[in-house]
Amino acid sequence: MSNNSEKQILIWGAGRIGRGFIGDIFADSGYELNFVDAAQPLVDLLNEQGVYTVVRAFGADNIQRIPVSQFKAYHVSQKDVLQKLVNEVDVIAIATFPKVFEAVAVELQKLILARRSVRPNDPLDIIICTNLVHAGPVFSTALYQGLDAEQQAYFDEKIGVVESLIIRMAPPAPAAEVEKDPLVVWTNGYAEFPVDASAFKAEPPQIAAFRLVTDMRAEEQRKMYTYNMCHAVLGYQGYQDGYKLLVDCLADPKLRTEAEGALNEVSTALQNQYGFTAEAMAKWVEGVIDQTNNPSIGDTVARMAADPLRKLKKTDRLIGPSLLCLKNGVDPKYLVRAIAYALHFRTEDDPNSIKLTDDIEDHGLEAALKTATSLGEDPLEKKLMEAIKAAYQQAGKEIDWRKKAKEAYDLGFKYESVYHGCGQSSYAAISELLGTFDPEVFKAATGLCGGIGLKNNNTCSAFTGAVLAIGNIYNRRREHFDGNRETKYQNFDLVQQLYEKFTTEFGGITCVHIHTVKYGRPYDLSVKAESVAFEEAGGHGPNGCTDTVGKACQFAIEALAPMLIEKEEE
Predict the structure, then answer these.
(1) Are residues 233 and 246 both part of a single domain?
(2) Which of 55, 115, 252, 318 has its CA at a distance of 20 to 30 angstroms from the CA of residue 539?
(3) In whole angstroms, what separates CA 293 from the centre of its chain?
(4) pLDDT category, 52, cuts 50, 70, 90?
């Protein structure tokens, strides 16, 4: 253990943030690390291994593995050793969950009072490293508990409680990495560590990652109302689409629009409220998207949607930025949509989601919303409440149509798998689901197979069958050959949307394009040998034309849904 207190830190909490962020950045700046933890097996393993790995996964092609070895680990019961450490160091990091703040503060208070007799004039700074909003007063309240007036004065003068922002992500490491190093910490490598400059009692440590900030409330809100908010938007909407990872949500243009729309709303509000420049916020928002869109991290929809009761609190990531927007003259329509989807979130392995949705069912939306969010009679809060109530009804309809889109995929997949004939399969699945099936149209679609008549240089028949199904609803009728302009152009718009979805998925709408994407080359199904080779390549396997038909059906329902919802409301 070093006797040079200027280059030592005590890190209370040897979990992923303690090891993978605080330990990483202090070790990187030449500090000796002293971990304290309540988990004896973790302490033992750290001391036995003598080294652990921090993975900075900036992206799939940019992964750094940093060995950290300049540390020792101690159990919280080793009072004499902890006293010696507290006497020596000038900085302590608290990297625990807020629920154990009180227990940590009780122990730390005793150690600090004893340190006073050894170093009465030397300050000590305690950096709070947690995702809790406004964590400083919470920890300070516990730290000051039971002090007399004279002791409080000493703490006020010499003990700094420094708030910080944890933006680095440290999800569970992949199993293959844990096999190589049980102590590995997998992170996104985010290097910056904002800390409250005004709260230090000594000179802040010279840490390369430090960003000393003067308005912690502004920084705290910016982080919560952008990073955490964006993750919640993707989590609650992505859940309804069946996505598992946030990167998959961002790959969906519809969900990316929702996330970027919400970020742009709150960006304007933050500029107005705190004076952030447009350029600074544009760069910040770009960073939020880039950090979220990191496939190496694999952050899950389930984690970001979990515990909606906590995430719907008035000052948290959805209601908070919405109120900030209204206060600053910004319409938070994307944020309100995210709140509505959060109110619909329900999964059996999340007790608070069940509690919330049951409360809505039992007591009505407004009462449940007031209980969950604490929104009251303030004019802006009432305005937000009304917007949420309207968005909730709309979200319910959208969720129902998302379910229909999934049903359409499954039905189209089934028909193509059992019967073949991609044009008829997609037409039948869509039109039957919508109650618009026309047997004459179905018969007329017989030649829509393998392109057209099995020739692959034609438009994919699954696409064409979906176009026919759209035409059942938005059409030009024979008796109005010279009219029906509105519905005709509505049809064109829907087909163009279908086209965009197809080309995004497959690179084009011909069988040649789709075969090349799926099988590596096109097959001319009018030639028997080619047809056999096509089947051997998985033509009607799980990722074959069955999937193409399913997606044609899904895409058609997704395109139709907004207009059909509007029709329902007329």
Answers:
(1) yes
(2) 252
(3) 9
(4) very high
357 and 488 in a common domain = no
Mean pLDDT of 189-215: 96
The whole-angstrom separation of Cα 270 and Cα 279 is 12
Are 11 and 35 in contact by the 8 Å Cβ rule? The answer is yes
Q: Is 195 helix (H, G, I), strand (E, B) or coil?
A: strand
Identify the domain boundary among 187, 214, 241: 214
Query: How many C-beta neighbours within 10 Å does residue 387 have?
Result: 20
Instruction: Quote the CA–CA distance of 467 and 556 in Å, as a whole number.
Output: 8
Asked whether the beta carbons of 181 and 53 are under 8 A apart, the reply is yes
Please state whether beta strands 62-68 and 52-59 pair in parallel, antiparallel, or not at all (unpaired): antiparallel
299 and 324 inside one domain: yes
| 3-state SS string for 370-417 | HHHHCCCCCHHHHHHHHHHHHHHHHHHHHHHHHHHHHHHHHHHHHHHH
> Quick one: 79 and 143 in the same domain?
yes
Distance in angstroms (rounded) separating the CA atoms of residues 385 and 72: 52
* Domain tally, the chain: 3
Query: What percent of the chain shows pLDDT beyond 90?
Result: 89
Quick one: 222 and 181 in the same domain?
no
Tell me, yes or no, whether 102 lies in a domain: yes
Confidence of residue 5 (pLDDT cuts 50, 70, 90): very low
How far is 333 from 330, CA to CA, in rounded Å? 9
- For residue 365, the enclosing domain spans 217-375
Answer whether residue 122 is part of any domain. yes
DSSP state of 61: T
Same domain, residue pair 114 and 208: yes
Residue 17 within a domain: yes
CATH code, domain carrying 235: 1.10.1040.10
Q: Above pLDDT 70, what percent of the chain?
A: 99
Asked whether residue 392 carries a pLDDT value surpassing 80, the answer given is yes
| Euclidean distance between CA atoms 460 and 455, whole angstroms | 10
- Going by the DSSP 8-state scheme, the letter that residue 163 receives in this structure is E
Q: Give the residue from 164, 197, 214 where a domain finishes.
A: 214
How far is 73 from 76, CA to CA, in rounded Å?
10
pTM of the model: 0.85
| Beta-carbon contacts of residue 52 (< 8 Å; ≥ 6 apart) | 19, 46, 67, 68, 181, 183, 184, 185
Average confidence (pLDDT) over 501-516: 91
SS3 197: helix
Residues 257 and 296 in one domain: yes
According to the model, what pLDDT value does residue 344 have? 98
Nearest partner of 23 among 79, 50, 299, 13, judged by Cα: 13
Tell whether 391 is covered by a domain: no
Query: What residue has token string 């253990």?
Result: 1
565 and 422 inside one domain: yes
CATH number of the domain enclosing 176? 3.40.50.720
Mean pLDDT, residues 245-262: 96
Q: What is the pLDDT of residues 273-316, one digit of tens each?
A: 999 999 999 999 999 999 999 999 988 999 999 999 999 999 99
Q: How confident is the model at residue 6 (pLDDT cuts 50, 70, 90)?
A: low
**Sequential DSSP letters for 430-461:** HHHHHT---HHHHHHTTT-STTBTTBTTSB-H
